[in-house]
Amino acid sequence: MKRMSRTRATLAGGLAVAALGTLTVGVGAAQAGEKDHRRGKATEREIAGLFDRWNAALRSGDPERVTDLYAEDAVLLPTASPRIRTDHAGIADYFAHFLQKKPRGEKIRTEINVLDADSAIDAGLYRFHLTDPKTGVTKPVDARYTYVYEKRDGRWLIVNHHSSVLPAEG
């Protein structure tokens, strides 16, 4: 009977060590995966900063500087034009006209969703301060927006940008 107890004890001990080893390896692998995932995935703060970069490009007054923030195959559904822009030339044309209003944007509300290491969505409400080139009068325009970003060759680019005047309540 002692022999069976020792055998069972040895077996139970061996199984416990094997289970603990498997658990330790599994937890270690999961933690390493989490660290790699966190390191590669953008933060909400990083994505929010992409608007600041875009807004600074607007303030430069240079349509090419703004257009350079868009991917070659980007789609722009702009605030102040009924035309969908689907290439760099169309996007640059839109900004050449829009920048004459000396736009200055500010976010009112933002919802950021980091999808993975190379894509994110920033959607919400913003206000533009636009100056009429003829009168010099500046007025605010509230709009809703969606930016879809992709990291391409290590650089965050806008692949889809929708902006429309905020409708009235009701």
User: Poorly predicted ranges (pLDDT <50, ≥5 residues)?
Assistant: 15-38
Average pLDDT taken over every residue: 84
Beta-strand percentage range: 35-45%
Number of helical segments with 4 or more residues: 4
Which structural class is indicated by helix and strand composition?
alpha+beta
Radius of gyration: 27 Å
Q: Could you spell the SSE succession in H and E letters?
A: HHHEHEEEE
Sketch the major β-sheet.
5 strands, mixed
Total number of strands? 5
Distance between the termini: 84 Å
Query: Strand order within the widest sheet?
Result: 1-5-4-3-2
Q: Shape from CA axes?
A: globular
Measured as a percent range, the helix fraction is 40-55%
Brief synopsis:
This protein has 170 residues and is α+β, with helices and mostly antiparallel strands. It is built from four helices and five strands.
Can you put this structure into words, describing what you see?
With 170 residues, the protein is α+β, with helices and mostly antiparallel strands. It has four helices and five strands, in the order αααβαββββ. It has a five-stranded mixed sheet, covered by helices on one side. It is globular and about 50 Å long. It starts with a helix and ends in a 5-residue tail after the last strand. Residues 15-38 have low confidence and may be disordered.
